[in-house]
Batch of 3 targets.
Target 1
Amino acid sequence: MDLLPFLLALLHVHKALCAEISWDSTVKLTKQLSLECAHLPTQILTQIEWLKRNGQKEERIAIFNPILGLEITAPYTNRVSIKNSSEASNIITLNFNNASDMDAGLYTCRLNMFPDGSAEKIIQVAKTDKFESIALLNETIPELVTESGQNITLNYQFQMKGPVKTVIWEKIQPHQIDILTSCDLLEGSPYTSKYQNKVWATCRQGSRVSILFIPNVTVSESAIYCCLVEATTGEKESYMVRLIVYGPKQGGNIQMACLKSPLECRIREPTTPEVRSPTDKPRTTHRMIFM
């Protein structure tokens, strides 16, 4: 199934080309709704605040301070909770109990961290059946299998002949789509979100290739990664790769977190390590070049 029209619809969240993105993530509305917000593992969280946008105003849902504790605002009392993710301690989730249609809309996660100051993430919660299209992604998507702790480099060489205007990298999961990076290649200027992702991508004026770098991957990075490209003529193309990250070995078995149902997850044993000379430098970067 061709998902390009659905994925490229996210290009319209720009108020001006690569100047401002209305949200960083789109999450499917479900009864057990969970919104994620993360800080870098090297940062110390001093406060986190969750808000919902209501027109031009924002209403506070909850605020947490490690010293002062947690305060949940009515009418969200007994409806939401804040927890650390089981996947990583630097991921904080806002969990809804029995969410309904009235919980659709825009949410802001505002972080205060030491020593880097503040950052925020804007999340759109949408009631849409378009997420069901993600379940129909077939096995033709190339897979990159790696272990946690490695550095991953994804490269995509543009197929279109004319000048490229916009390049966006997305992380796609069955319940959520995250905009990772956005670049205006005509100006050579990247869009920088107020939300601090640990990934980065190249953005050079006139470039014919886009490179996404993900350092020190964890099992939570397992997902489909999509590069969306739009030319000055309006021509569009995309490329996808499925990243599968294995966790540490325990008792000879492999622990792996990857895309769950409805997307198929195929367990793979790692291949035999390459035999290399003791004088060779260790390789920590996996590189895929899509021609």
Target 2
Amino acid sequence: MDRDGDRAQGEHDQPLGAGRGRTIGLASVVKSLADNKQLLGMRYAEWCTAAPSLEADIAAAAMGLDDLGHSRVLYGCLKELPDGESVDEGTYTNVRYLDQPWTDWSQFVAANAVLDTAFTLMIESLAGGNVELLRSRLRKMLQEERYHYLHGRSWLREAPARDAVVSAWGEALEWFGPDGGDVDQLKKAGKIALGVPELRRSLEEKLETNAPSAGIAWDRWNPITRRTSEGGIDQGTLDMLQGLAEKRYMPAGGQRVEV
């Protein structure tokens, strides 16, 4: 651990961040959305026995399963998009809020209320565009995401989560991208229904408040990773979340069993 409490990266734990230099298209946005929904589902699942109430435990488990399922649908769409072969499936292009496990319930609340809603707005935008593959497959997803929104909004009114909300909101705006960037270009082409200004405004309307001030250094924004910071989720953390790092389990008798 470093002095800020973050997990230090070992020499074999290389960040899974995508590099620069590739053409940005619809597939890149879908890939990032799929990565974020998968990791968000995993982070939700980590709290399914640690939330403040039994109801919240159940909600965390249910939303985690939803998002893991939604990520699979998005990954499936990615393979059928014309530019789907251009993305690197071996990288993760997620917001940094999901890089490490959350240590406080307020982080869960902010992710549920702000980030999940931001991702849902992008799903809505994709479903409203002129790409029939996305129009037909993502509409049912929006019905399931409505529960996530209602749960997040409810907890946002109850839990003291201001600092976490400010952080999550800034990352949501960063993930939408800058004015005139790839998202706005995709809207001009009719492939998505909402540009950056509409996404920002819709997020404020959904959460019934103005966005906190966020000084984003757009000159450092990477259109592939959709973030201004370097790095990303490391392989060690990814293996842990997927249950791949530890391949042996200790039964009650104390003898290791290979599985």
Target 3
Amino acid sequence: MNRLHEALPARQRGAALLIVLAFVVLLTGVSVAYLSRTTGDRQVAHGSFYQSNVDQLAQSAMDSIIGDLRQEIANGSTAYAQADGTTLYVPRDTGAGTAANMVPQRSGNTTLGPNLIRRSIRSDTLSGNPAPPSRASAVNSTTDASATGRSITLARWNTHYLLPKTNPFNNDSYPPSPLLAPFNPYTPVPNGFTPPDWVFVTPTGGTVITSPNNSVIGRYAYAIYDEGGLLDVNVAGYPTDAVAGTAVTWPGRKGSLAYADLRALGTTDANRLSNPDAGSIYQVDRLVGWRNYATTRPTNNFPDTGGQAFARNFQTDTTITRPAALFCSYVLGNTNGFLSANNGTSPNGRTDQTFVQRQELIGFRKTVGSTSSFSTNVLQYLSTFSRETNAPSFSPSTPAGSTIDYAALASTSTAINPNFLFRRVTTSFTRFDGATAVVGEPLVKTRFPLSRLAWITYKGPSAGLATTDPVYQALSQSLVNSGESAVHAATIISAGTANNIKRCFGLTFPTGGAAGSPWTYTNPTGASAANRILRLDEVAAVGREPDFFELLQAAILSGSLGQNTGGGVTGGNVFPDIHMSNTAHHILSIGAAIIDQADPDSIPTRIQFNPSGTVWTAYGVENLPYITQMYPIAGTSPNTPAQWATYLLFQLWNPHQNASTLPNNVRLRVDGAIGIFTGGNGQSWVNGTTPQIIANGNNAGQSVTLQLTSSFSAPAPLTNTNTTNAAAAPGPAPGGAFAALVAPTVP
């Protein structure tokens, strides 16, 4: 028989209930945790989804804005396909001149915001010629709040401080604007900044709407600013120099953005970087000390002021390793275009620093500045990235009245004066700076450093000069006076080797040649005197960089070279007609004059070339007296009374504005041959006849010294009393060059 179930004690039944309840609580907790986690994940997922949508919309808006700018370039340019597959766009005249299409068309900008190029604005004036019209609708981003009450404040539109501020005495960012209160707390300015209008995005892109539209998936508004003309604060600005001489000469070079004077941004401390300001704080020194810490090695702690001010040594150190000297060496030795900070370290392990973005610059100003010194007003002039290429982009224009259409010819393959961007590398080669010239890149990639002019001296290549040579010392001092440091001047002079001069100028000096020997233009790859100067397309075909004279020829309008004398009064085949009409001779003369302008001596540079089997010489111009008049004088020969003698009497004058006012001697030198023959009327020159006066071959370079008792600052006739080292008239034996006329007998 079945046994009766034994009744459980109440205590056991209570324990079972507790266990069940515990499991219920645990299950409830797990469920709640799951639901909570699911809800959180759902919110995160939604947030990520919405953020992705926002990012996608922002990227789409950016692509649309940049696409419009690219379309503007294409609409306003002529496209030229290049050999490397790229396309070169050259601005063309669409009714307002070619210059009008070289920069973006302005729309919705303000005269009080010179950096503002364009903003999204309803019904703008752009129509696709060449810029596409705006896609903005008549809904303003500031004054027309959304359904949720959101808008972008006027101050927020200028948190970058690229626009000038209404109130220069505080740190808010409100720009001058025509908006009224409550959107603008200041007095309205009619021609000020108006916030952009919204561009509404539908599935078909930016669309102008006039009423609510359910297809709108987002909106954006924009303003475009040009930072190309702003000072890159990662480069601009130099430290105080405690040595008075170099404090003027080094910044005076103005060859680098690093020597931009930040004190010139305004007239008061409130709108410039003063050094020092009214509070004796050296704002520029603090900026340079922080930015170029490892280079300049400032003392004390940043950003301290007062007696132990940060970078105090900038104002007191006068040694050769002072911060200003270290900074100058850093600037002159920079090879990467200041695209990265100096990777050197200071004794305490610190490096140079850069502002990666504009917010860092604004933060730096907030740390060290005030409303009266390094004010936010200064930020409208500064950028954290603004670079310009050194590659020339010259393209000739056609002067009014010219019979040569240089602008049209510039795009042809054999133009003498081409658009420089059309001359591309066709064969890879190694550039002078060691870089590899890549096929398709511009042939002329950098500017020609004019410091190389110091390489050419009348004694030959500068690298061959002893440091004790007066020419070397004069060159060094001239370079220092132009802003170079003594160390860098020595580096420049030592780089003037024969090989470097031939590569960069196409010039050679006679091996072992005496002082005053002429240079010979061969071009960088020639072995003897060249007969002409190559065009840039010919240079590209050879596979090298153009030399100094080839660049001059490409840049100077060909029609302005070689004076056409039309046969002249001396015949159609004699000097000066042939020489004056030769363009290569003219280019070499201009180049020689530029060299003479740069060198410290008073000896004209001579450059020889061979245009047609006969060596010609081009001469430079120094600050010396020159023959300004020549006129004949004739009468009974002092040598043979039965004969008639004719002489050419010349007048000397120094045409330079800074001509010496002190008495000096002038040495006249004759090169070439002067044909003088005897006979009566009707006689002609016979080829092969030896002229009476010869100054070529072994007799080349004959000279006479003119003793002066007054300066050449004003024209004065030459008389025999001013002449020494010359034989008596009618002239020396064959081979001589100069003769002193005997004063005529006064009847």
